[in-house]
């Protein structure tokens, strides 16, 4: 990717005023809106569906929307999120019966496909799919809940994926999700990551005051990322 991108996860936002929350983090300098879609089946939590994506588009959000599907099965819901305005749709290989078919389904519906790997999920499937992807998302926590601590061994995984992406010569995003904030974003960037999901690190900054402090958190992340250049 040509630059680092910050992707706040709305899982940690105030859903009573979601449109305003998303407007504020984008105004603060965030690049992508990240959706954590959970089904209480593949992961032990239940969150949001396509209607929320559609509502944000109708609200006027034009930034890329990055939909991370933690659902099983995957294929049924892909067209709904595509129609609702998703930009990226990523899914876990173990949640699809036919990974190649699901990648094609996402592409055929006008979205950019990506694969997601849990902390202990091997990367073998990338050998056969990487050239068809626009994004690889590495989970640095076990999926299901926000606010978890970063799992350090994922950095080695990131270095391996970065080598694989660079070998293709293609512009494929390498995203990380879980426990990322100003304190560790530089270390993560040095491992080859270019897109950073941050939920509680960003949204918790504005919860205790009327004056939104998202700007300072995003600025702190940008300042750390500048050191990686």
Topology, element by element:
Elements (H helix, E strand, L loop, with lengths): L4 E4 L9 H10 L5 E6 L11 H10 L5 E6 L7 H7 L3 E4 L7 H10 L3 E6 L8 H4 L5 E5 L14 H15 L4 E5 L7 H6 L4 E4 L1 H4 L10 H13 L3
Parallel strand pairs: 1-8, 2-3, 3-4, 4-5, 5-6, 6-7, 7-8
Written overview of the protein:
With 229 residues, the chain is an alpha/beta fold. The chain has one domain: TIM Barrel. 34% of the residues lie in helices and 17% in strands. The protein is built from 9 helices and 8 strands. An 8-stranded parallel beta sheet has the order 1-8-7-6-5-4-3-2. 45% of the residues are buried. The mean pLDDT is 93.
Q: What are the main properties of this structure?
A:
alpha/beta; eight-stranded parallel β-sheet; 34% helix
Overview in brief:
The protein is of the alpha/beta class and 229 residues long.
CATH superfamily: Aldolase class I
Domain count: the total is: 1
Alpha-beta classification: alpha/beta
Please state the CA-atom Rg, rounded to the nearest Å: 16 Å
Instruction: Sketch the major β-sheet.
Output: 8 strands, parallel
Might you state the CATH topology name? TIM Barrel
Physical arrangement of strands within the biggest beta sheet = 1-8-7-6-5-4-3-2
CATH architecture: Alpha-Beta Barrel
Low-pLDDT runs: none
Distance between the termini: 13 Å
């Amino acid at each position: 990717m040509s630059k680092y991108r910050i992707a706040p996860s709305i899982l940690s936002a105030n859903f009573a005023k979601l449109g305003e929350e998303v407007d504020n983090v984008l105004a603060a300098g965030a690049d992508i809106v990240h959706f954590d879609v959970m089904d209480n089946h593949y992961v032990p939590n239940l969150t949001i569906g396509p209607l929320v994506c559609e509502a944000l588009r109708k609200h006027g959000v034009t930034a890329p929307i990055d939909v991370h599907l933690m659902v099983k099965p995957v294929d049924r819901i892909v067209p709904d999120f595509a129609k609702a305005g998703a930009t990226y749709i990523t899914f876990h290989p173990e949640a699809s019966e036919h990974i190649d078919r699901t990648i094609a389904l996402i592409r055929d519906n006008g979205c950019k496909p990506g694969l997601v790997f849990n902390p202990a999920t091997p990367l073998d499937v990338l050998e056969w799919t990487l050239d068809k992807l626009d994004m690889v998302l590495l989970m640095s926590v076990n999926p299901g809940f926000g606010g978890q601590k970063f799992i350090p061994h994922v950095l080695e995984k990131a270095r391996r994926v970065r080598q694989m992406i660079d070998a293709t010569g293609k512009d494929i995003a390498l995203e990380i999700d879980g426990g990322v904030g100003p304190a560790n974003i530089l270390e993560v960037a040095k491992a080859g990551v270019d897109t950073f999901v941050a939920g509680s690190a960003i949204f918790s900054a504005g919860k205790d005051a009327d004056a939104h402090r998202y700007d300072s958190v995003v600025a702190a992340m940008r300042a750390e990322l500048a050191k990686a250049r």
